[in-house]
Amino acid sequence: VDLKECLQSAEFISSSNENFKILEDGSVYTTSAVSLSAEKKTFTILLKDIQEHVQKKIHVSLVEEEKKKTRHARDTVLKRTKRRWGPIPSVMIENSLGPFPLQIQQVQSDTAQNYTIYYSASGPGIDQDPKGLFYIERETGNIFATRAVDREQYPSFQIICFATTPDGYSPEVPLVHTIRIEDDNDNAPYFTQDLFEFSVPENSKPGVVVGKVTAEDRDEPYTLHTTLKYRIVSQNPPVTPAFSLHGDTGVIAVLLPQLDRELVSSYTLLVEVRDMAGQPFGLCTTGTAVIRIEDTNDNAPCFKQTQYETRVEENRVNVEILRVSVVDLDEPGSPGSGAVYEIIRGNDDRSFEITTDKNTNEGILCVVKGLDYESAKQRILVIAVNNEAPYMLAPHSQQLSQSTSSVTVHILDVDEGPVFKPCHLRLDVKECEEVGTSIGRYLAEDPETGNSEGICYRIPPGQCNWISIDEKSGEVRTIKVLDRDLGEMRQGQCNITVLAIDRNGKTGTGTIQVVIQPGNKNYPRITKTDYIMCRDRKPICLTAQDGDESPYSTPFVYRITDRSLASMWKITRHNDNSVYLSPKGDTPFGIYNIPVSVIDNGGKVGENLVKVNLCDCVTPTECDSGPRGYSNGNVTLGVWAILAMILGSLLLLLILITICGCCGSGVMHRHVTDDCANHNLIISNTEAPGEEVM
């Protein structure tokens, strides 16, 4: 094949099929016997220019030559196989000591019996880097090495040997000869890291994997030269061996049943790796592995003191009064040593609070609510401590009880100002009470003496101006009518700060909450008082409203105050604030002004006048009430009522006249003559079916 035409600058030539070899001149040779089947055999020649990063392929197809003679299957095929002129691959020991030049092989051609043969060679180690490492004698075909070779740098060489006659004829095909460099154990194994660092929790069980150390060897793989063994040379501190090292894998595991960080926080292991499967004559290297023991909360905190005493002035708030400290053997700064304090007794009123100083791990006890010397001269607290992390019981150890400490707090007496009791007083005032009404007293007392002598009172300006307080007696009175329907009083309450001043000028403050209680100040009123009632006489629903709140509003009581109208109309209860008004019996049509009184739940009476037009109509729109009506028991008839009465009288008179006429004529039969039968009806007083007439 023409390699230069495909890629002239090819530096690497290879075949996809190991049964075929391609030389630099493009010659293709078989490297073993090839059997061709009926199908084509194909392979690919790969050309690479490494510097230019160019790659090209040549596809080669092989076909079987046509047979010139046909044989029967039973015929025996005799074929003479030509002996190859090249020897088996050569072997050279790595780092050979010579003497040099050192003969490593000889190549000879059978054609030397008939021709004068000259031998030559080319390839890596001869005319390519490393140049001059090998050479071949021209007349004998002996191959020599000129110096030692490092297998790790050059594991093998492939050279091409040529056999030619003096006139340049090549009776033999070029021979590809391999020179393999046999490995010498000249490289000691080495660890992949200068320092291996691992960690394992304390109290870990034996067998727990800590980590793995790894090493490599540059010698030939899968030989004794690269079969490595690991072992622990020494341990620091030199106490009972705490770890084991697997000889083949390099895995480090826990060996000691109990690792205690508080005793030994870290271990340093000197480890060795040796080739030749650990045999004494193998090469070795040592490395270092540091194993840090991680802390677990296996030590409970304990107070340095079981009793503390401190002092604080009464009424002081948000002030630090004491610091307590604990001893914890766990790792400082870890959750296993971080202290969490709590007050477990003596702080029912939550006057104290304890927190943790993250920098010092101390407990800071503070007063958050003022203490009263007069109530208690000292307080005794019990403080307990835990860790941030849950406690983990170490092997072969017993459960520890929680550490506690008592704190006695002495309260110091100071001269205080007057104190109102209670500090917040609620006074209820009925709505619309008269100005100057006394609603209560608000007194303060000296905490030291327990009395109110020499204390005066006043209300600072700028507050709701509802009440006043007597300077000496502390009596509280209203200074205006309190009405929930007016301005600032709509909320119904106001908080007023009161000052108490003793003889020394010290002051105390208290708060009066004035609450306006709803009163019965409004009369109940019927919302609608003008109605039309038609001939169906459907009851009217009367509804009243009262601006007051419970209990001065509903339920309402309705009454008709006029006796004569009460005999004609009746009231029926509907619900707490509504009733039905309906006529009794045959109350005549007309307009009625009915006085109705409504009484609320507080007994306040509201008078109302309900106007009802009792009209002879089907719908209220048909009626016009007009200016007339029924009032105070007298009925005034309208125009339509008078006309109805007149027409009714005339109709009644006509009926009477007709009846009288019929009775005077007696019983008679009047018949129509035949000649008039076609023109008149028969008049008869006999009740019977009539005859068929025209």
TrEMBL record:
Recorded topology in the membrane: Single-pass type I membrane protein
GO CC terms: cell surface; desmosome; plasma membrane
Compartment(s): Cell junction, Desmosome; Cell membrane
Glycoprotein among keywords: yes
GO biological process, alphabetically ordered: homophilic cell adhesion via plasma membrane adhesion molecules
The UniProt record lists the keyword Transmembrane: yes
Transmembrane region(s): 637-660
Pfam entry (one): Cadherin
Primary subcellular site in the record, as a coarse category: other
CDD domains xref list: Cadherin_repeat
Organism superkingdom: Eukaryota
Keywords of the record: Calcium, Cell adhesion, Cell junction, Cell membrane, Glycoprotein, Membrane, Repeat, Transmembrane, Transmembrane helix
Ranges where the Cadherin domain occurs: 94-191, 192-303, 304-420, 421-526, 542-629
Gene3D superfamilies linked to this entry: Cadherins (2.60.40.60)
GO molecular function: calcium ion binding
Protein name in the entry: Desmocollin-1
